[in-house]
Sulfurtransferase
Amino acid sequence: MHKKLIAVAVVLAFMVAAMAGPAAAQDGKKPAFKQYTAIVDYAFVAKYAKMPQPKDVMVIDSRPYKPKYVEGYIPTAVSIPASQFDKMTDKLPANKGALLIFYCGGFDCPLSHKSAYAAEALGYTNIKVYAAGFPDWKKNAPYYSIGLENLSERIAAGDQQLVIDARPYKKFLEGAIPSAVGIPEKDFAAKRGMLPVDKANVTLIYYCGGYACALSHKSAVKARYLGYKNVLVAEAGYPGWKEMFGAADTGAVMAGEAEGAVDTEWFLATIKSNPDSILLIDVRDPEEYAAGHFPSAVNMTVDMIEKQAAEIPTDKPIVFSCASGARAGEAFYLFKDLRPEVEKVFYLEATNSFGSDNSYEVHPNK
């Protein structure tokens, strides 16, 4: 009789543990909220949270859009906060058989479970909850995504980071997020020397042509393979940046004393307050550029300018810069010879020094 009681107790213990689910296994306590019936882990989610996106799959972040989602989310995830679920059902796929994966802030967070039940009530039949949520993703995944609001704050704060445009170089020259450098995904191997030497402390933030663009995601994976520890993707990309913060204005340029030179004080004020209003091209060698440069400058050597002059956008003033003004002046005269129809072309007649954090000192040449 005693042995039978022990056996029954063991069976009951296993039943209680199974009913408690993953959240209870995390801290030994059963959550106060009703858990969803279908729980999945990181390995399951990783099969679907990738680019290009699998068909009929939607990963959904149930946390508040601000501050949580914009600070970091699972790649490809759509923000549908649990508190706004009833108002945002139009974001859900039309196919009621599509796979929906909800997540939120971890085992103690009820939001993803609440949203899963709400989706089930709407008739969706293939619903999962990633109960470990975003904290588990950050722990296991090679990278995660951030909102443009967060990227803007990082740029303004001057964090130790490198913003990288993974689009083709021509697209980059036509317009880019302030402080970004152009390293096209297809040229990743050839241009990896432009990446910072410090792989542990510098954050790499990739972007490309918007939510449907896979180039930033591919580059992020390659960067992690090279050993960079902190890699992020701004999925909204340059189209999202233009929509949220506006495109650059192309104002008048104040000329300096020498032929073709730009006024130094005007230049410094412009790159500080309105850097997108000019196309600033650093003509130094890639190694010099990688060691430090004006935050809004793109890198094209004089040889590259000679070969690609026809591809350089002319919808806003062009300013060439270098270390001493010599190569910048050479680029100016070369470009004027090749593109005589372009009027707003200048160079910076100054001696410039740069820090590894892209700080700079500019001294006009006398």
Observations:
- The longest helix spans residues 2-27.
- The first strand starts at residue 57 and ends at 61.
